Amino acid sequence: MKKNHVFMAIALPALALFFIFHTYPALQGIFYSFTDWKGYGSWNFVGVKNYLNVFKDNRAGAAYIFTFQFAIVTTIVVNIISLLIAIGLNSKIKFRKTLRAIYFLPYILSILIIGFIFNFIFAHFLPQIGTVLGSELLSKNILGNPDLAWIGIVIVAVWQGVAFNTLLYLAGLVTISEDLYEAASIDGAGIWTKFWKITFPMIAPFFTINMVLSMKNYLMVFDQIVAMTGGGPGKSTESISLLIYRGGFEGGQFAYQSANAVVYFVVIVIISIIQLKILNRREAAN
Amino acid sequence: MTRKKTNWIITVLLILGSLFILFPIYLAITIAFKTPPEMAGNLLVLPKSWSFDNFKQAIEMTNFFNAFKNSFFITFFVVIFTVLTNSLVAYAIARNLHKKFYKTLYFYFLSAMFIPFPIIMLPLVKQTSAWGMDNLVGLIVLYVVFNLSFNVFIYIGYIRSIPVELEEAAIMDGASTWGVFWKVIFPLLAPMNATVAIITCLGAWNDFMLPLVLLSDQSMATLPLVQYIFQSQFSTDYNLAFASYLMALAPMILVYVFAQKWIISGVMRGSIK
Description:
The structure holds 2 protein chains of 2 kinds.
Chain A: H1 2-32, H2 49-56, H3 58-90, H4 96-104, H5 111-133, H6 149-173, H7 178-186, H8 191-219, H9 223-228, H10 240-250, H11 254-285
Helix pairs in contact in A: 2-11, 3-6, 3-8, 5-6, 6-8, 8-11, 10-11
Chain B: H1 8-33, H2 53-62, H3 64-94, H4 100-111, H5 117-130, H6 136-159, H7 164-172, H8 177-188, H9 190-206, H10 209-214, H11 223-229, H12 231-234, H13 238-271
Helix pairs in contact in B: 1-13, 2-13, 3-6, 3-9, 4-6, 6-9, 7-8, 9-13
């Protein structure tokens, strides 16, 4: 009986702390989303008004569109590149350990600081190269262009994101036996056939994890944007996280941004579930 | 089976690709040593002299050692407390998963992984400042508690692979549940503890958002936060800014150079759980 008491004495404080610092703030956020609280002073219940306003709000709409565009493009690019690198690192190459260490390096670095470095690359280094080459496109800072700035943020996110995804794909690739490829070669299969018939099905679970995790991470993009554009030019690269942060802390929109956060949460859960369903079905079909 | 020959095409391609990874770091190092007049010339060339003046100035300006101390303090204690407490909680849950309460608790922690931080951010900041937790200790408490979600998940998978017979033998010898955990289970968890320690360390050291929203006093700023705070003061003095960035990145890079094998295998172990 005493044993159970010990387990309870461990589990209960953990539950209490987690509830106090995680669940309780979440519930408070939901509660305030039905009020007009500015973050200070008095407040009244306003029903679902905040939610209706979020859907009518152009700034919020733009933030959702930007965040989705960024997250989808980055997820796809990161996964293609990391799969290629992982296949490369898994083949018979020289300096494998060193190369693997270099490709994983970005994972350990601060995203914010990397963002500042890339900010400089886009603002000064690329224009210098562009001027030398006489390229109109390169000679200007793309982060200053409302239509192109998001690409700069994708590049930083890819530069860093590839590290972790490559590692996961590599973990999947090393489990595939060399014999499978040799048997396929004897049957006359080409590189392309081997990839789709052997490699891809074998690493499908890793593909699923990578797609879901990447998408979720990139929907929460924040550090890169703070370091690169601050949401600009204009509001062209303002992500949902940044909007909640700005409006909630600086704009006196505590309740309104809480409603926005709830919408955001629902969106993320729905996307994760849809992704898991589609990807699992595809895995099962293989 | 014949030994395959080295594929030089892929080797060369991968080496070229790795230059993309190394380039921003090369740029950061060289610019940190340059002087403003050198910035007008070709940005790719090496600095004329390797003087540490930029670093000295950046250290003074940003109060680097203070920020380093803050980051180190947070990371050190978060890692220690996360490994000690999260493994214990995971053990309590793992050995009682057949009971409804513990099973619910497991899914409770697990489901929190799907809650994006911005959702709890606004109320959390109000709450922590009202409770006097808008400081380094508050930050440590929050990291340790939030880490439970992911760590319980990866520890439990590992703990369940440890045979219960080992514990029963220790109990026969008169050890308490508490003693069994620290003397039998915790040492067996060593590989997982290393994984959790590495991931926690990177997370706490590099995190920007939680220190940004939580800390009220600039003297408590962590290394990434300091770079953000001084962004406007660096203005166009990129040499100073890059010296500061480089010093903020250097500790992790140094650790990585010496321990990359462990770090990579540790993160890999955590990710395939």
